[in-house]
Amino acid sequence: MIVEQLSLVDFRNYAAADVTLVPGPNVFVGRNGQGKTNLAEAIAFFATLGSHRVSNDAPMVRDGADAAIIRARLAHGERRVQLEAQVNRQGSNKARVNGSAVKPSELPRYAQVVLFAPEDLQIVRGDPSARRRFADQLLVQRAPRMSGVLGDYDRVLKQRTALLKSARARGVRGDALSTLDVWDDKLVTLGTQVIQARLALAADLAAPLAAAYTSIAGADHDPEIEWALSIRGNDPDSDDAGTPAVVTADVADIAAQFREALAARRVAELDRGLTLVGPHRDDLLLRIRGLPVKGYASHGESWSVALSLRLASAELLREESLLGDPVLILDDVFAELDTDRRARLAGLAGDYEQVVVTAAVEGDVPDILRARMVRVEAGRIVEEATDA
Predict the structure, then answer these.
(1) pTM for the full model?
(2) Is residue 196 a known part of a binding site?
């Protein structure tokens, strides 16, 4: 997949912008705060339906505007597809494919993007929510229908939790809240699909993660990845490394364990007014040398794991996709890496059909990725050039 043209209206600091991209490396260069990352964010939006920097859409809309427009022309071999997303400050977003209105959840069917940024250190060092978000965005790219499943799960979760809070305020205890059973059924049905998809994702990432880590770090530290599931008793509020996921990903087994866990925690849920069991409470465990990356890995090792997760994601999408390679975006990454990791990453990235790199200093970008330079200044594309 190749992004040939990107157009923005009222997106971040861009009143309007048009930029042409080519196969191979494309480098956006400019001082910090000029809008380089905004271009990368716009490209990735079509694949993830969100930002890698913020959890809601409003900050992506230019100050004073009600909506932002992102348009991109993609090439899938000889086929061309025009995508458009209208990101609204309030209310639901809108989307078009080749001029026809579609649900925004349809966009990832046409666009696959893997973006690595300094914020990705939070995947390995931050709260479980960062790891869940990483996994779920990859799930949507791998199977776009999961966007609907995840959205429905979140809605059911909010409604069930609201019921628990109301019951707590009214002093309802034990099994007196019979209406909770209806929401339990919905939560189990949707949550089981999420858990099953996440387990399969971790299993499929294991081999490419190990290969990518060895390539980036130059060492085999035996990286591991697995889910700690709340339906198996994992408590994300504790400092424990967590309980390994169930061995089987069978739907019936997951659903049965989910129901048992809900029944076992019902009194505690009513006491606290919270839903304590489900994929929203799970954690993706990452280890090297048998130890959790969070709390034990060095800074360089943490960077290597974060990079490896993204490269493994790209390899997985590359193997499964009919669209060709995903677009690989490296957002302000090279300034954070030592010389050895820069060279290793550049060698791996150069193998993809299209790579987008952002950098404040041109010299931070390895020579093999400097084929096309696009200069950015204060929300404007001021110069486009191709190195000789």
Answers:
(1) 0.87
(2) no
Check whether 363 is labelled as a binding-site residue.
Answer: no
Which domains are assigned to the chain? 1-112+324-388 (3.40.50.300), 123-320 (1.20.1050.90)
Ligand-binding annotation for 30, yes or no, is yes
Residue 330 near residue 358, CB atoms below 8 Å: yes
Mind listing the pLDDT tens digit of every residue in the chain (388 residues)?
A: 999 999 999 999 999 999 999 999 999 999 998 899 999 999 999 998 888 888 789 999 999 999 999 999 999 888 999 999 999 999 999 999 999 999 998 898 899 999 999 889 999 999 999 999 999 999 988 888 898 899 999 999 999 999 999 888 887 665 666 788 899 999 999 999 999 999 999 999 999 999 999 998 888 899 999 999 999 987 655 544 445 544 456 888 999 999 999 999 988 998 899 999 999 999 999 999 999 999 899 988 999 999 999 999 999 999 988 778 999 999 999 988 888 888 999 999 988 999 999 999 988 999 999 888 999 998 888 866 555 4
33 assigned to a ligand binding site: yes
Residue 31 assigned ligand-binding role = yes
Q: Is 34 annotated as a binding residue?
A: yes
